[in-house]
Specification:
The complex is a heterodimer of chains A (163) and B (186). Chain A is α+β, with helices and mostly antiparallel strands. Chain A has 5 helices and 5 strands, in the order E-H-H-H-E-E-H-H-E-E. Chain A is 46% helix and 18% strand. Chain B has a single domain, classed as Muramoyl-pentapeptide Carboxypeptidase, domain 2. Classes of the chains: A alpha+beta (163), B alpha+beta (186). At the A-B interface, strand 1, helix 1, helix 2 and helix 3 of A face strand 1, helix 2, helix 3 and helix 4 of B. Chain B: Pfam families: TRAPP (PF04051).
């Protein structure tokens, strides 16, 4: 069975966040937030598989990370990453001023417990980035940080390039 | 184009969006995880329904706030809003409402197109899985919030070779206000 999604228009981010919330709740109940990262990884890996089917081969890591920040982010969230920083030694920091995973109005950003919840929301997207890059030949470690939600930073540490 | 159709379109246009494929893959990952965790498909079906119920309870607030829709006068009207506004807004698809019973309390939502089921093929070990059961829960939760107790069931499933996925939706009863007469605002 093949999907019709080539022509399928985008869907509601609110409904998506509620779905993500349920995922967090399931993994939280099992005390296994690592599972969220793995789920994210699988989703990112598969998404890139379909998305890059006709894309030319990449030749270096910077090219791949730029592709992630521009093309992939745009395709997934309807916007590009707002800023990309690198120390040129294998660390990249993606700034997303309005991260789709946490831009929900139902998070009270002043409340400690809500912030803990928001951190959990960012585990799956870290896995998603790792999965996407893995499919493009880069092994890395990803962690998320935030100071003022919904602004987020994704810190990518490249471990191995297989390009 | 009917009034609800236009309303659904305009609400959909105003919403923040996310890639449909990402949505579908994420739902798929969730279902696959539940199948691995629970092994028993009946439990998975129940869990999907329960999750949907949680989601529905919250989605209805979004729908009411964004659409500004007035109180429905009948269950037929409710079903029309569910299809043309609710499903359009949140899943970008509009199921046909069909097969009403005479009393106007039961109908079938027929999905020509169900985004949740893109790229999905059920393994034979999951023959009893109601893959899109989350939708039944969403309907139950959302309508419960507007005082309508409904029962929903997938009665036809495109993933199992049926021509289309269909959900039978039955109005059980109208939920009485819990506050006494004295506290009624209207």
């Amino acid at each position: 069975r093949s999907g019709a999604s080539q022509s399928r228009g985008p869907m509601s981010a609110i409904a998506y966040r509620m779905l993500a919330f349920e995922l967090v709740r399931i993994c939280d109940a099992q005390n296994d937030l690592g599972k969220l990262e793995m789920l994210g990884f699988g989703i990112g890996h598969r998404f890139v598989e379909r998305f890059t089917r006709t894309h030319a081969k990449f030749t270096n890591t910077l090219e791949v990370v730029k592709f992630l920040c521009k093309d992939l982010w745009l395709a997934m969230f309807g916007k590009q990453v707002d800023k990309l920083q690198t120390n040129h030694k294998g660390v990249f920091v993606l700034h997303d001023n309005k991260c789709a995973w946490v831009s929900s109005v139902d998070i009270d950003y002043s409340d400690e417990e809500s912030l803990e919840q928001a951190k959990k929301f960012l585990i799956a997207p870290c896995g998603l980035i790792r999965g996407a890059l893995s499919n493009l030949g880069i092994k890395c470690t990803v962690r998320a940080e935030f100071s003022t939600l919904p602004m987020c930073f994704f810190n990518i540490q490249i471990n191995e390039e297989m390009l | 184009m009917s009034r609800n159709q236009r309303l659904g379109e305009s609400c959909y246009n105003d919403l923040e969006k996310i890639n449909a494929e990402l949505f579908t893959l994420t739902y798929g990952a969730l279902v696959a995880q539940l199948v691995r965790d629970m092994e028993d498909v009946d439990k998975v079906n129940a869990k999907l329904d329960e999750m949907g119920h949680n989601i529905g309870l919250r989605l209805i607030d979004e729908l009411l706030a964004k659409s500004g829709i007035a109180r429905c006068g009948s269950f037929r009207e409710t079903a029309d809003v569910v299809s043309k506004v609710g499903f359009k807004m949140f899943l970008n698809t509009v199921p046909n409402v069909d097969n009403w019973n005479e009393r106007g309390t039961e109908c079938t939502l027929v999905f020509d197109d169900n985004p949740l089921e893109d790229f999905v093929a059920l393994p034979s070990s999951c023959a009893g899985l109601k893959y899109s059961n989350v939708l039944c829960g969403v309907l139950r939760g959302a309508l419960e919030s507007v005082h309508l107790a409904v029962a929903c069931e997938i009665v036809s499933d495109a993933l199992k070779g049926d021509p289309k996925t269909e959900i039978r939706m039955s109005l059980k009863h109208v939920i009485e206000d819990e506050a006494g007469e004295d506290y009624r605002e209207d």
